[in-house]
Amino acid sequence: MTSTASxxxxxxxxxxxxxxxxxxxxxxxxxVFLNEGNIFAPFPETVVVAGGATDDVIxxxxxxxxxxxxxxxxxxxxxxxxxxxxxxxxxxxxxDNQARVQKVSLAKTSHIxxxxxxxxxxxxxxxxxxxxxxxxxxxSKGTNLGAGWSTLNFSPLKVDIDR
Length: 163
Fold this sequence. Notes:
With about 160 residues, this protein is an all-beta fold. Helices cover about 0% and strands about 45% of the residues.
């Protein structure tokens, strides 16, 4: 959809049949992406949002997303406060990556991972979830948090941790 815009807001519905090209391509510069609509890829593992090596801000505020939201490298911020995610959230190896997941269901979220950047923080608030750090994604176990987070924060929620 774009590669050089400084801000992209989706309030409609976007569907792609591509298995390789992201629907929202933010790899051309530092970008803010706000989603309040629907974004659908053919499969939950297909990249729908691709961030670049800069400091991107991605906010899923409402709507339904099917696919992988991948922030790329850089010191990125990811906010998920509404809608549904049938797919995953993947943060790259930038330092100080920040992800906040609040008031959403993770029932169909296969992973929320960060690569090996220092200071990566994942914060959960007001959700009910199950999951842990697994070798590979397995929704029967819950959401895979991987091993790249420096800090995990939990505020009022119910969590089942599997090993």
